[in-house]
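#lab-general

N.A. 3:47 PM
ok so I finally got the sequence cleaned up, no stray characters, all 330 residues accounted for. can someone with queue access submit it? mine expired

B.Y. 3:52 PM
send it over

N.A. 3:53 PM
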Amino acid sequence: MGIACAPLGQTAPMDAGVAAIEVRDLTMRFKGARVDALARLSISVPQGVIYGILGPNGAGKTTLLSILCGLITPQAGSVCVGGRDRLHDPAEVKRLLGVAPQEPAIYPTLTARENLAFYGRMQGLAGARLESRIQACLELAEIADLADTRVEHFSGGFKRRLNLVIALIHEPRILILDEPTVAIDPHSRSLIHQRLRDLHAAGVTILISTHYMDEAEQLCHQVAIMSHGRLVIQGGVQDLLAAQRDDTIQIRLDRDAPDGLGEALGRLPEVGDLHLSGRCLTATAPRADRAILALLQVLRDAEVGVESMGYGGSSLERFFLTLTDEEAAR
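B.Y. 4:20 PM
back already:
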């Protein structure tokens, strides 16, 4: 289906060449904290990309998004959205931005239609224009048949879909998403991914914070990896992956590693450096054929299955784990 929520000129266009989001030397320390939540953070998000913000818990991602959305004010630094100063031109920034928070901002005792109408009116929509946008958003989320059902009866996936299109009700040019697919069913996750690709194709810039490395690798053109309130690295996803390809074995397990598995794998003489986190296993070996057989035998003995396996490739998950482990060790 065609994208119904593409910008149609309701918001003034952004100047060509201006970054969609530009933060410079952003610093934030909460009252009573011993360290900065953000420490001179600088990130530039070009127009027309899907840009990922990645980082472990406590990296400062939520603080960054809260500042971008105007929920908190930093102690130092500058924030520009579409060339407009976040602090000095909040009304225009509000028109440019659509925001879908991690916890769905929906009223459970209202219907999907009523939720969209409420947020549409908050964005200045009314009359036939509001009704048109409500219908377009219901169809985009594929919940038109549930339009008059109270949201408290929705599944988690349907709530996430509604949360997304509420952010699109006023046709923003920049969309900010905080963990948009956490804990939802595969069909809703696939639908949201496709809608984000459609929005990107229609010219919307998307900033997405996610813990799912496969999601970032599939969707994002560029990423920034944060740790302890600082920028570790930012760049194109394919460029970052190309820079870390080597003779490493990558195995994706079918479940989280049981206790003791890492130690058992680490004792194999065929294996050099080994890293095991959750379901992601990486190892280096001078003889990959021997090492793979040995690794698979230990996994079989531990009754752990393999979802996928590769050699000499790379993944964003592996790159992320390596970088954040190094940062934590400093």
